[in-house]
Amino acid sequence: MTTYPTISAADEQLEVPGLSALAHDWLSAIGEDPEREGLQRTPHRVAKAWSFLTAGYHKTLQDAAGDAVFAAEGSEMVLVKDIEFYSMCEHHMLPFYGRAHIAYIPDGKILGLSKFARIVDLYSRRLQVQERVTTQIADAVEELLNPRGVAVLMEGVHLCMAMRGVQKQNSSTTTSAMRGLFKEDMRTRMEFLSAVQTTLRSR
Ligand SMILES: Nc1nc2c(ncn2[C@@H]2O[C@H](COP(=O)(O)OP(=O)(O)OP(=O)(O)O)[C@@H](O)[C@H]2O)c(=O)[nH]1
Ligand SMILES: [Zn+2]
Predict the structure, then answer these.
(1) N or C: which end of the chain has fewer CB within 10 A?
(2) ipTM of this predicted complex?
(3) pLDDT for 74-105, tens place per residue?
(4) Residue 127 contacts by C-beta under 8 Å, 6 or more apart in sequence?
(5) Where is the GTP cyclohydrolase I domain positioned along the sequence (predicted)?
(6) What's the gap in Å between 158 CA and the centre of ligand 1?
(7) Residue numbers belonging to the annotated binding site for Zn(2+)
(8) Which domains are assigned to the chain?
(9) Nearest by Cα to 3 from 41, 69, 50, 60
C-alpha cells in the first residue's frame, strides 16, 4: 500500500483494500439497496474516507516530527492549546472529537510547533479510546525531546454517548497525562491547568 509521510488529503486518494466490498454488504445488511443511484459510489467513498480516518496506522512518529527537533536554550513551559482532533472509538467505530492541549518544559531541545498537531493526528486517526491517545501523545513528546516535563490534556465528545446509548448530548470527557515536573511539582501543574482553563472559560 502506498503511504504518505504525513496525514493529508492525499490519504483520501487511497481506498482501504477490501473495504468497498464490505461497505456494499453493509448497505444491504441495513436494508438499503446498494445499487440505487445515490448509493452506487458510496462503498468507494467509504473506503476512501476510512483510508483518511485510519491513516495514523501507516505513519510513524518520525514521519510526524520530520527534522523539526531543534537545539535550544531555555526551560520555560511551552504550551500549544486547542489542537482539534477527530478519532473513532474502538468500541462502536463512531467518532469522538474535541481539543488537545500539549505542554512541555524543554531540556535543551524544542519541537517545531506544527508537529504537535501532526502528533495528535498520528494517534487520533486510528480506532482509539481517549485515554490511550492522551498517553501516546505524552509518550511521543517524551521520546522526541526528553524534556523536563510533559502535560497533555484532551477534551472529547463521544458520539457513541450522544447519538445512541445513554444519549447525553452535553457531556464531555477530559483525560490527562502528566510527566516529570508536571507530575511532581504542583505549581508547574497549576500553571498548565490555569492556562488551559483560561481558554475553556472564554469559549
Ligand atoms: N474509557 C473509555 N470508554 C469509552 C471510550 N469511548 C467509548 N467508551 C465506552 O465504552 C463502553 C463500551 O461499553 P459496552 O457496555 O461494552 O458497550 P455498549 O453496550 O454499547 O454500552 P453503552 O454505550 O452504554 O450502550 C461504553 O461505556 C462507552 O461509553 C473512550 O474513549 N474511553
Ligand atoms: Zn464508543
Answers:
(1) C
(2) 0.92
(3) 889 999 999 999 999 999 999 999 999 999 99
(4) 54, 88, 89, 90, 93
(5) 23-196
(6) 9
(7) 89, 92, 160
(8) 9-56 (1.10.286.10), 67-202 (3.30.1130.10)
(9) 60
